[in-house]
Amino acid sequence: MRIVVLTGGIGGARFLLGVRAHARAIGADVTAVVNVGDDVRMHGLQICPDLDSVMYTLGGAADPERGWGRVGETWVVKEELAKYGVEPSWFGLGDKDTATHLVRTTMLNAGYPLSAVTAALCERWQPGITVLPASDDRLETHVVVDVDGERKAIHFQEWWVRYRGELPTHRFVFRGAESAKPAAGVLDAIAAADVVLIAPSNPVVSIAPILAVPPLREAVANGPAPVVGVSPIIGGAPVRGMADRCLATLEVEVSAGAVGRMYGPRAEGGLLDGWLVDESDAGAEVPGVRTRAVPLWMRDEVATARMVEDALELGGVS
Amino acid sequence: MRIVVLTGGIGGARFLLGVRAHARAIGADVTAVVNVGDDVRMHGLQICPDLDSVMYTLGGAADPERGWGRVGETWVVKEELAKYGVEPSWFGLGDKDTATHLVRTTMLNAGYPLSAVTAALCERWQPGITVLPASDDRLETHVVVDVDGERKAIHFQEWWVRYRGELPTHRFVFRGAESAKPAAGVLDAIAAADVVLIAPSNPVVSIAPILAVPPLREAVANGPAPVVGVSPIIGGAPVRGMADRCLATLEVEVSAGAVGRMYGPRAEGGLLDGWLVDESDAGAEVPGVRTRAVPLWMRDEVATARMVEDALELGGVS
Questions:
Q1: Which residue in B44, B76, B103 is closest to A86 by CB distance?
Q2: Which residues form the signal peptide (chains A, B) (predicted)?
């Protein structure tokens, strides 16, 4: 069996631990198509937070407390940059992380596409799945906000890390998405998939930038494989992160049902065949989509693998 | 009084401590024209070892034991790069140093010349003198060697750090020097100087690359200011570093007199008006050049400042 997962963020990386565990149990192949909208160049370094979260989490090197970045991280480079007075100073640039960014940036500057760079980095991390960026092209999530009395678009990282989303926020823009092509391997993986899973990632800033690449969305929405999403909202609140703030910007209710309806049924131009929600959201209504309520807390790898098993069942491919 | 110092390497940086001390005592201005032949791009970072040695040493942040790099340095980035298996792995890339390189590289990539970047970095280090790279243009010292049975040119850093100079070595090549222009401010400083000092740096790989820039050598050799050199050789051996290996490659004897003769008297197309040697080299003969023997060990800032005072006297400008 071939499983493709659309994913981003820390929740998405943790979901992949369960996907990998269940895939090993049933002998399935997994390809993760990872959000690149968070990617940003800072201090000359190309930083790909979501790809790194996947590599570090599946490579057993993620910081379990902080969620992002490396366990045992140190911060000498960041402190020194601050002493030089160079901006941005608000970004969490760890020393171990810096090495990852240096390797990546050097390869990108030498002309390798991000997908090839990611494959090279994964030689170290051995994630046990295929990790693909959604696109090799530049695609950045920007956020239209009011800051210091002025309306402007800032990079998603600035909105998220510097301002913790606490600015009057008008909309999210996926710069470059319209002309971006899916990265090498992405369309083939989707075409060959037995099922496509949408991870319980932030639908607005982790999943939407992936689907903003027109041929990618087209391949998922009109492909042969059933599509099953896993709700990132449990009991009216995001499991982690700031999906509530993001959904509010879109004037979408913070509920499992509303997110399912936002993705929408395939029959009506949406994405979903199935929508897995938490037991506490058993009443969620997503017309035209098979829903099922199971425990959705990713307490550990075993619990997460069970969610994946449930998602495959809901997609009719278990 | 205006003093210009041609300098490179760790010995040159330490000499500048004495120049600054004496200049403060007599109310003189100092401009250091620093070797850039050691500069190298590694892991996408533009590294300028000699400029950094000057900044860190005069900024009070140099490691006193190791000689190069920052005191209290850590090595997380370097260890991580090694775990990714990327080369070169033999270069001493410290975490604090990495921040300097990131700031520099970002500014260079944004189009600022190295002289402007150096001035910006010096805002942090407050060296108390003007620090100029010899050139804003690319100029790299390469070394023609036999390695693994093959004759090839390797970067100076590879020769020096990786191989410790222990390869059959044929010659040094200053790539880019012929077409390089002196950096902004260099020719003005030399034209306005009351004296030009040649630091007791390695003459072959620290001073020669500076003088390999034709208009720069021309400005020193035919300028109005007297030129006084300080011998890097004491009692037939280099004070520090590998000047002996470098001189051997040029078939120049390792002695204070031979280095003085290599620089040569101005009257015969050379550089020197005066040549300061150590007491133990009192018999050194440099025809056409005023020589003087004084204690040349840079034991501390006071002893070094006295050497500078002696050099100015020898140049007739004290």
A1: B103
A2: none
Q: How many CB pairs below 8 Å do chains A and B form together?
A: 82
> In DSSP terms, which residues pair with A150 in a beta bridge?
A147
Domains of chain A: 2-37+51-59+125-136+178-314 (3.40.50.10680)
Instruction: Report CA torsion sign: A44, A240, A289, A262.
Output: negative
Distance CA A166, CA A111 (A): 38
- Give the pLDDT of residue B140: 97
Q: Tell me how crowded residue A64 is: count the other CB atoms within 10 A of its CB.
A: 7
Please check whether residue B83 touches A, CB under 8 A.
yes
> Which of A85, A95, A109 is facing B44, going by the closest CB pair?
A109
**Alpha carbon of A175 to those of A137, A142, A154, A249, B119: distances in Å?**
11, 7, 11, 18, 36
**Selection from B12, B33, B20 nearest residue B187 by Cα:** B33
Residue B207, min C-alpha distance to chain A (Å): 29
Residues of A (109-128) whose Cβ lies below 8 Å from B: 109, 121, 123-124
Three-state secondary structure call for residue B32: strand
Interface contact flag, A99 B77, Cβ < 8 Å: yes
Backbone angles phi, psi at A118, to 5 degrees: -65, -40
CB contact under 8 A, A121 and B84: yes
Mean pLDDT across B10-14? 96
Q: Does A71 touch chain B (CB under 8 A)?
A: no
d(CA A137, CA B40): 30
Write down the pLDDT at residue B95. 98
Low-confidence ranges of chain A (pLDDT < 50): none
Helices assigned H by DSSP within B196-265 = 208-211, 214-221, 243-249, 256-263
Tokens of A302: 């075993």
Alpha-carbon span B237 to B280, nearest angstrom = 11
* A86 touching chain B per CB within 8 A: yes
